[in-house]
């Protein structure tokens, strides 16, 4: 007679365990903000990783391109890479000069 009682006890424990798993799964599905936040973190991580990989590839490609330039040009490019503000200022000055010349010729 103990066997049916033991079987019933195992069935009750199994049912409790399954019910707990079901409740946990439903709670996870109901936690939409939590799932969205989790997905956002995963996506941000993938984007950061891809951005890093792209930056590494771009640096390698840039270095290769600079290496194929004549030495005087490569030196100037390296100077510009070390001082991007100076390069930007020179480009702005060039644009202003072209604009002024084009306005004068009208």
Report on the structure:
The protein is mostly helical and about 110 residues long. The chain has two domains: about 1-70; about 70-105. Helices cover about 90% and strands about 0% of the residues. It has four helices and no strands. The protein has helices at about 1-30, 30-65, 70-80, 85-105. It is elongated and about 105 Å long.
Described by its quaternary structure, the protein is: single chain
Question: Can you tell me the number of structural domains?
Answer: 2
Shape: elongated
Tell me the helix content.
Answer: over 70%
Count, helices:
4
In terms of DSSP E residues, the strand content is under 5%
Q: What Rg do the Cα atoms give?
A: 33 Å
Keywords:
elongated; DUF3618; 92% helix; 106 residues; 2 domains; mainly alpha; 4 helices; transmembrane
Topology at a glance:
Blueprint (H helix, E strand, L loop, with lengths): L1 H29 L1 H36 L3 H12 L1 H21 L2
In a nutshell, what does this entry contain?
92% of the residues lie in helices and 0% in strands. The chain has helices at residues 2-30, 32-67, 71-82, 84-104. It comes from Lentzea albidocapillata subsp. violacea.
């Amino acid at each position: 007679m103990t066997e049916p009682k033991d079987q019933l006890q195992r069935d009750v424990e199994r049912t409790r365990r399954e019910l707990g798993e079901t409740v946990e799964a439903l709670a996870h599905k109901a936690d939409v903000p939590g799932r969205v936040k989790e997905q956002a973190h995963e996506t941000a991580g993938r984007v950061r990783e891809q951005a890093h990989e792209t930056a590494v590839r771009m640096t390698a490609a840039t270095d290769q391109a600079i290496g194929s330039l004549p030495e005087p040009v490569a030196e100037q490019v390296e100077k510009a890479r070390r001082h991007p503000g100076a390069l930007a200022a020179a480009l702005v000055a060039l644009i202003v000069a072209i604009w002024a010349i084009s306005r004068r010729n009208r």
